[in-house]
Amino acid sequence: MNKLTYSKTFWTALIAGVTTGMGNGSVFGAALMCALGRGRFEDWGGWHGQNFDPSTFQGFVDWCMLVFGFAFMFIVMIAARRHGELEAAAGH
User: Fold this and answer.
1) What is the mean pLDDT of residues 56-76?
2) Nearest-angstrom CA–CA distance, 61 and 22
3) pLDDT tens across 32-64, in order?
4) Residue 13 and residue 60: Cα distance in Å, rounded?
5) Which residues are CB-neighbours of 21 under 8 A, at least 6 positions away?
6) Closest C-alpha to 21, from 76, 59, 58
7) Closest CA to 64 of 16, 27, 39, 89
8) CA-to-CA distance for 45 and 51, rounded, in angstroms?
9) What is the mean pLDDT of the chain?
10) Per-residue pLDDT at 74 exceeds 80
11) What's the burial of 41, exposed, middle or buried (CB within 10 Å: 0-12/13-18/19+)?
């Protein structure tokens, strides 16, 4: 029987996946903006609601962080469940 179900691995996957994914998303966003340029200084978007406006530099990086974070969370959940299936098949 697989002991690593999605409900048992959710919080671990949330913490591990989102922290890793958000770190990767910020690096991806920063590298992309360094390669393409971040536009005029008015478009930086570092205040209040502009933090999540994807047309600004800060908003784009924040959305990359969120998308990468939740994508990694789902990857960790799938990997943990498959690991549990392998352990169950091996009889551990």
Assistant:
1) 89
2) 10
3) 878 877 666 566 777 788 788 888 778 888 888
4) 24
5) 65, 68, 69, 70, 71, 72, 73
6) 76
7) 27
8) 6
9) 85
10) yes
11) exposed
